[in-house]
Specification:
Blueprint: H1 13-17, H2 20-28, H3 33-42, H4 44-54, E1 65-68, E2 77-80, E3 83-84, H5 86-90, E4 103-108, E5 115-119, H6 120-136, E6 144-148, H7 153-164, E7 168-172, H8 178-188, E8 192-196, E9 198-201, E10 204-207, H9 209-216, E11 224-228, E12 244-246, H10 247-251, E13 263-264, E14 268-274, E15 282-287, H11 290-303, E16 311-314, H12 321-333, E17 336-340, H13 351-358, E18 363-366, H14 368-375, H15 379-383, E19 392-395, H16 402-411, E20 419-421, E21 423-425, E22 430-434, E23 448-449, E24 455-458, E25 471-475, H17 490-498, E26 505-513, E27 519-524, E28 529-531, E29 534-536, H18 538-546, E30 551-561, E31 565-576, H19 585-599, E32 607-610, H20 624-632, H21 646-655
Parallel strand pairs: 4-17, 6-7, 6-8, 8-11, 11-12, 16-17, 16-18, 18-19, 19-20, 31-32
Antiparallel strand pairs: 1-2, 3-13, 4-5, 9-10, 14-15, 21-22, 22-23, 24-25, 25-26, 26-27, 28-29, 30-31
């Protein structure tokens, strides 16, 4: 990107001066984020000492050593000898403070007349009651407990109750069908599952317990199922004697106080699965210090300015890492959380913005896909609502393209609020790249690397690439958020991340740094498109297509060309905007020409295909590898994370492709 191109947003001196980041810089005696990054990369242990002191991280027994790398970087140990608990830092810390009687969780059902508010005191009492109920079932330290729940207050009560008794939480996407559940419950060795009878989705009663029952027929190790009664008589919910228990019955007589288990700082706390390109899902292990030390304190508080007075809203399922973010970020700092059941555009297209308005959200998180979907309803839908409560905007989950970034900036942020873009993943338990209120912004940009992660951009051989060149994002050393191996599969952990380019962690993202020091993610490196000998990520080309205003979403892929051999051809899968006729051949030509005008004639796509939906994961990332597999033929890989598996079949039909053998799919509901 040319350095002379103006920035879309520039921080004011007052905003920078009053930021959390400035307070941290003053504490450690650094003059800029860049100098802080250099010092943190040189001494990650020093960084975390300062982060924990600045954020008042609580331990039962202090650690004797912050970082032990004696077994090598992949097996780094943090806070050696220390004991703590996520619940100690996120709930217990507020007992006896002003926050105790303030709202923590505000919930709205799909029907807006259904609302609940729980103060920290009330929430803690429910956590303690559930902790007692789980202990009565014989659950405790080291037991894996699945959480297969929609967005209900009980979901977050269960999150903390499982951790409070020292058990290991396994979040599960509420849209999963039986086969993805079987794979995770078996691999994780779950002893219990907490679920609901069902939930509301677009006015329909969607079952959960019935789906879980199908999975449990193949997972006999699950001894107990605790069921929240959300739907009542609207769903038939068979209960198996001895195994199944109603939440309200088990909670009825439980005391409202219970001590939190003192856990080794490096003890597993959360087992969260992320899908591999092929093979079974990978179980990422977060400890009682890892997620709080990375995403919660280092990234979202110090870098992204989350504060105690903020109300956080990021519409997401508990099965994605954003679920844990929603639980831990506001609770650690004494803020509040808005939780909403259902979808952003039902019962009407303005629901998402009405939630922000009515509940006075200050810190709004989104996935770019959500904004692309809401753009279809027009800017008028946003302008109807008072969004003046917003203080900061945040985004994550996938790379932006310019058009939706600017739409969100202009209409939600009114051209004055920065979009704090973050990128990392389940495997690192936090961010690789962050955006701060100290740095100017352009669409989809990041300010720089997260603190202490040792980020570099390299070629296939591990050599640093010149400024402006697309390369592989790597981390030169371990950081506190990284998964503690992969669950029961040390060899796969090394093979997937540490042995791709020996000596560094390869995350799988294509990244570029511009002349102003801003960073851009250009897609997954396994989505590489190579045209005329030049590698590029799909985002650069997708930007050109969404900029036409004719399509709201695009997946650009590369496929082998039968005539030119090794030459890769661009193929666009587009979702037209309302009022645009996808059957019009002129539209395909217009999109093709947009690529040629922006990239050159060698990038002219071989095909432009229109579909109603793109295949997406539960965290709303477009699955380009699946699009490529359908188009070119080949192994579809692991589809268990798809939120809309019907989109794969739709694409196959439109292309006239034969059915391909596929592994387990997510539920289509």
């Amino acid at each position: 990107m040319n350095a002379k191109i103006p920035f879309d947003w520039t921080p004011t001196p007052e905003l920078k001066q009053d930021s959390v980041l400035s307070a941290f810089l003053r504490r450690v005696g650094e003059s800029s984020y860049e100098s802080l990054c250099a010092r943190a990369d040189a001494d990650p242990a020093w960084l975390m000492e300062e982060v924990f002191a600045f954020c008042d991280f609580r331990f039962y027994r202090p650690y004797t050593r912050m970082l032990d790398t004696s077994r090598g970087q992949p097996w780094s140990q943090w806070c050696v000898g220390g004991t703590t608990n996520i619940v100690l830092n996120c709930i217990d810390r507020h007992r006896g403070t002003d926050a105790w009687e303030r709202p923590f969780l505000v919930w709205e059902g799909e029907n807006p007349d259904e609302q609940r508010t729980l103060t920290y005191r009330e929430f803690d009492a429910e956590v303690c009651r559930l902790a007692h109920a789980l202990s009565e079932l014989g659950l405790g330290r080291g037991d894996v407990v699945g959480l297969y729940m929609p967005n209900l207050p009980e979901t977050y009560i269960a999150f903390f109750a499982v951790l409070k008794i020292g058990a290991i939480l396994m979040p599960l996407f509420s849209g999963f069908g039986p086969q993805p559940l079987i794979a995770r419950l078996k691999d994780g060795g779950a002893r219990a599952v907490i679920t609901a009878d069902g939930t509301w989705r677009r006015g329909n009663a969607a079952p959960l317990k019935a789906v879980l029952d199908e999975a449990l027929a193949a997972t006999p190790a699950v001894a107990h199922v605790l069921v929240v009664r959300r739907m009542g008589d609207r769903l038939t919910t068979p209960m198996q004697a001895g195994r199944d228990h109603w939440w309200h019955e088990r909670m009825a007589s439980q005391p409202a106080q219970r001590a939190t288990e003192e856990m080794d700082a490096s003890a597993p706390a959360i087992l969260l699965y992320t899908s591999g390109t092929t093979g079974r899902p990978k179980g990422c292990v977060w400890t009682h210090v890892s997620f709080l030390g990375s995403m919660v304190t280092r990234d979202m508080h110090i870098c992204c300015d989350f504060r105690s007075g903020d109300r956080y809203f990021f519409l997401s399922d508990m099965g994605w890492m954003v679920g844990a973010m929603c639980a831990c970020i506001p609770s650690y700092f004494g803020g509040s959380l808005l939780l909403a059941e259902g979808t952003p555009d039902y019962p009407d297209s303005g629901r998402f913005w009405r939630l922000v308005q009515n509940h006075r959200v200050t810190y709004l998180g989104v996935a770019p896909t959500l904004i692309r979907g809401l753009m279809r309803y027009g800017e008028e839908e946003v302008e109807r609502y008072d969004l003046s409560s917003l203080r900061l905007l945040s985004s994550g989950g996938e790379a932006w393209t310019d058009a939706p970034w600017r739409w969100f900036f202009r209409h939600a942020g009114k051209g004055r609020l920065p979009i704090l873009n973050i990128a990392g993943g389940t495997e690192v338990g936090g961010c690789n790249l962050v955006t701060t209120v100290h740095h100017p912004q352009r669409p989809s940009s990041f300010s720089g690397p997260a603190l202490g992660v040792g980020l570099a951009i390299v070629d296939e051989s591990g050599r640093p690439v010149p400024e402006g060149t697309v390369g592989e994002l790597v981390l030169r050393h371990a950081n506190i958020g990284m998964t503690r191996g992969l669950w029961q599969d040390d060899a796969r952990y090394l093979e997937s991340y540490w042995n791709v380019i020996p000596g560094v962690w390869v995350h799988g993202d294509f990244v570029r740094r511009d002349a102003d020091g801003l960073y851009y993610i250009l897609g997954r490196s396994d989505d590489t498109i190579k045209v005329s000998g030049k590698r590029t990520g799909p985002t650069e080309i997708e930007n050109l297509l969404t900029a036409t205003g004719a399509v709201s979403e695009v997946a650009v892929i590369g496929v082998p060309d039968p005539v030119k051999g090794a030459v890769i051809v661009c193929v666009c899968v587009c979702v037209p905007m309302p009022g645009v006729d996808a059957s019009d051949a002129a539209l395909a030509q217009r999109l093709s020409q947009a690529i040629v005008d922006g990239m050159g004639a060698s990038y002219r796509p071989a095909d432009v295909v229109f579909v109603d939906e793109l295949p997406k994961t539960r965290n709303l990332k477009v699955m380009r590898r699946v699009v490529r597999a359908v188009y070119a033929g080949g192994n579809l890989g692991d589809l268990s994370a798809l939120v809309n598996p019907h989109a794969v079949e739709d694409l196959r039909r439109r292309l006239g492709k034969p059915a391909l053998p596929a592994p387990a799919r997510a539920s289509a509901r």
